[in-house]
Amino acid sequence: MEPSKVDVLIVGAGPAGLMLSLWMAKLGIKTRVVDKRTGKIVSGQADGFQCRTLEIFDSFGIGQKVWQESNHMLEVSFWNPGEDGKIRRHHRGPNTQPNLSRFTESVLQQGRVESFLIDTIRASASPKHPLIEIERSVMPTTLSIDESCVNDEDAYPVEVTLRHLTEEEATPTQRLSNLQDGLYRSNLAEDDTEKLIANTSGVREEKVQAKYVVGCDGAHSWVRKTLGEGFEMKGESTDAIWGVLDIIPITDFPDIRSRCMIHSAEFGAMMVIPRENKLVRVYTQLKEVSTGTGRVDRSQITPELILQTARKILSPYTLDYHYIDWWTAYQIGQRVGDRFSKHNRIFLAGDAVHTHSPKAGQGMNVSMGDTYNLGWKLGLVCKKLLRPEVLDTYELERRQIARQLIAFDHKFSRLFSGRPATDGSGEGSSMSEFQEAFREAQLFITGVGIRYQPSLLVCKENDDTGDLGGGLQAETAPQSSAASTAGLATNCRPGTRFASQKVMAQSDARPWELQLQMPSDGRFRIVVFGGDISQAKQLATVNELGAWLQANLLSPAKSPRISLAPGPDPRGGSGSSQWMTDQDPSIVDVLLVHAASREQIELLQDLHPVYHPFDKKLGWDYGKVFVDGQTHHEGHGRAYERYGVDPARGAIVAVRPDGYIGLVTALQGEDGWKQLQAWFGGLLRSV
Amino acid sequence: MEPSKVDVLIVGAGPAGLMLSLWMAKLGIKTRVVDKRTGKIVSGQADGFQCRTLEIFDSFGIGQKVWQESNHMLEVSFWNPGEDGKIRRHHRGPNTQPNLSRFTESVLQQGRVESFLIDTIRASASPKHPLIEIERSVMPTTLSIDESCVNDEDAYPVEVTLRHLTEEEATPTQRLSNLQDGLYRSNLAEDDTEKLIANTSGVREEKVQAKYVVGCDGAHSWVRKTLGEGFEMKGESTDAIWGVLDIIPITDFPDIRSRCMIHSAEFGAMMVIPRENKLVRVYTQLKEVSTGTGRVDRSQITPELILQTARKILSPYTLDYHYIDWWTAYQIGQRVGDRFSKHNRIFLAGDAVHTHSPKAGQGMNVSMGDTYNLGWKLGLVCKKLLRPEVLDTYELERRQIARQLIAFDHKFSRLFSGRPATDGSGEGSSMSEFQEAFREAQLFITGVGIRYQPSLLVCKENDDTGDLGGGLQAETAPQSSAASTAGLATNCRPGTRFASQKVMAQSDARPWELQLQMPSDGRFRIVVFGGDISQAKQLATVNELGAWLQANLLSPAKSPRISLAPGPDPRGGSGSSQWMTDQDPSIVDVLLVHAASREQIELLQDLHPVYHPFDKKLGWDYGKVFVDGQTHHEGHGRAYERYGVDPARGAIVAVRPDGYIGLVTALQGEDGWKQLQAWFGGLLRSV
Which of A157, A232, B425, B622 has its CA 20 to 30 A from that of A62? Predict the structure, then answer.
């Protein structure tokens, strides 16, 4: 049989693979997604959603579902031994620092979120957007790359053999008695991939040729192993073993519905994560099974052992349960790969290229962060809209995050597994150190503090020193020929995510989180902070910019069009209606946020049509102009103040399809505008 | 064949029938729901959701879905002719008065909401809650009531013949070409019920005996007609005909995304309702087809006619469209029945007992309001938890609302159809009158101002005069032996809905709209405003009350238990977990809102167990105690201030299962507590 052809083959349908599939569905890329397991997760596994992840979900129209079903983990309590050796509450405070995001850290079972992602992938299908189905019980068994054609964008250089597993193979025994063997899927479990590949009797296989292959296949990644030399994971393991229980607790411990970090005097540490549906996740250090020789006696690890350990740590409080949902155990270690891609044709993402301990609720978030970063680049390259060299920025940007993650986790895990000083003589010193580390790490943990380094995608500020903060220095990488102007939007730093502030629609006075007006649909966005356009001069500036944008960036001759998918839309309704017209919009979308009073401006009459584009089937677009003003029911967003923009001057903030700031430049004058042209020129193929 | 038996038979699966079915599903009542049509609505029909309706949806866990998909209609503009005869904007302001509710008026196609209701009905099934399926293409053809046993609660006195229609009968020709005949379902259309009943060839019929039958079968209600004498609708029709278009408009009219009331100099009036998915609904007066003789030439009414009329009214602005979703026309009239039930065995609800014009977005809301009022009463009587005489309050309460609605609509329609004075010589007088009528009606229109009169369910304040406001006087009705104390909670008036304020959970610091902690699950709620319980004396008072409640109201010997259904829960998670235990809770639920600082109180240690009830499978309940205080991320709710409760004194507010206040009494002392006992004693069967 002839090999079939596909643009993108995704191996693994966990959170990383599904996030990537969602981008492919939104962009209309011919994609296959395979996973060797027969079904998705229904209990346990990852559960923590960080602010930035919730913002990303919201950009796909599913943030509110997660937000509504999840437990919002608002407080963290630190407990440690008092003079009498008994634990006592040492400190209690907000778990997520206020004003970082409209979300806070939340907890929901991974499988629910996978369902939401899959439903959204399906709902994005249209005549121009092929339906992507998740193919279960399918795994790759061979992979080869034809290096002679990796630079030919029309070639399908990667050939993969896909094996369709039997139901029995795809459903390991452990799965049938999940609760009995909680170590299934733990990093203490055996990997069955080799065994599955070795079984060649009566198998059904097919060959697929792909332009791109992405390994989202977890810590035992077969794709990574197949890439061989140069793709080894580097790092270390400790001999600290931790157990995890998901239970509905029956306890008199007062802070059971807060996140708790508990250090006992003698029995090690414990973490409490309050979850949805009355569940609580309990992490306990299992000193009994940590042999100190790096070897672990797995047979000793049972839910009963974890419960007994938790009871000792919590004493004199009691702990019991009737319902247990899941349990597992794992060994702490931090490992990261040097290389995230080969020839920009094969990519690795998520656990396949970085692993660490789960307690800071990072794994699923950073994994989805990887493919959220990769997806739009890969999709737009497949559509021949984006220059292929932009794919280099995936490794540049996400390896930086992986390394920050590993460094954070290394420090945090050791602090947490270590024995604290009691606070008999004042404050326990290591406890304070721990709290301080926790506080410092907030910006990284929540994901909102991420700052990608300068590249083709992120235009350096004119005074940039390359210092990324926290001792990190930017790597050498090809740079955009455009430069950002410092000081125009002081809280909009290039490389950081464009934060959301509340603004009000000019057309109907509805308050909006501005981020919701920038859905993940593959478009770049030029956010024009027009300033106080009740001033004739300022209005003229904004309209001159509009005319320039129309002529130089947005006309069909100057910028590529992109077809938008249907499906959930963060802006409400049952989905974007843009697919209802045959007039595809430009890949560059323009939003105007002005600081005049809403009453002083008439949308259609006062503003250049670039701010309310016309479609012959859908009429004028009323959803592009926003006001920084007092709303009828939700107060004043103070957006200019919070973005750090002077209403008398204004600014342009250009944002990547993933919501990160690429360029900040001036509203006034061609010098500023030309930076836009230079930036897009380095990215888009037809500008 | 023997007749089958069912507790409740609901005729009609529109919004009223579905809301009733939802209550039955939540309460676990054996119910059948039949509708003569083959499918649910997919376009057009009702679309306006008022604040109170959204609050009700939220109490079933589906408010956020509607809120997210709908268009929020935030502004209203009034346009009328200027001196030159051309229309101009006369006034623009908020469409929903601020601070009435956490919601504002919103617009979404009726069919979407029916889907949400049906999904929630299905999700409420459990071993104790029979699955309720909507039976389409089924209609009643005979109905008889055995009056000899209407007072025997175990009897099934109503016998109904149900006919299973053929697909062709259930799908009238018009339906196949919905857009061609927009008058299908209009009040200008013929009723086909008699024709369907007359066709007896080859029909399949069954007999059903029901304890209760509810006619939710619309303006042509077969159930009402079958009840005969005493059930006629009374009222009048005008000869004003209005047309309705649902289009994606192509227009330069500046306020097309606001609600607009437009009066032209010569061509009549028009209303604009901006909807979801770029749709706009346009209502225009069709003077051409209003013959003045009460007869209408239906054949003249076409989308083109409505568009032409709208164009004339909007001139000099232009109006066109490519997409049309739906259209219809209707004749203005107001009619209401005198009787809403027969022997408390057969009930009428929604359009079956009151009809009016659609422009104020009331129909669907008041119809669902009817069955939201009826459902819990009927369900709890079926379960033998509530005294059957409480059923009398359905007619008492909802006829009052229907009459208010008719009076409002009569005034509003006439004002709107009338020709306004131009504002050449200052302000047009009838325009001001119109605006004033609109403003005054806000409390009624939004549904949040509804005040049910004193009865068994609503305990009169000691100084009550029977004046219901707006010239209405309370009817004579059996009264509770309990009395409310005026002045304890000055913004919690008996008979009004218990408004929502933001409070914070004691256990985990999460901010909550208090209403979300009072889901529609059939339970009465005692909201204890405990005051500043950091004061030892106040804490003692609250705990004494707790002990009294436990001994006198909540113990299994004193109050009936109720099994809770699974399904969406406004409190998050994937549903209530109460059904996971065999220990059913009391029908009386207790919530504590205190005014001490959260840090000063330890839930389990300081408070009586009635405020954190224990379950042997689920442990302590952490979700019953709330704080009026500063939250980490969402400010201070100022609940005591907004409810009008003095923190030094406190209050008890007892709330019905539908969220309306039944009784306000004192926190301190047995005199106040005994009012609770008296109130519940008049309602519940075993207290």
Answer: B622
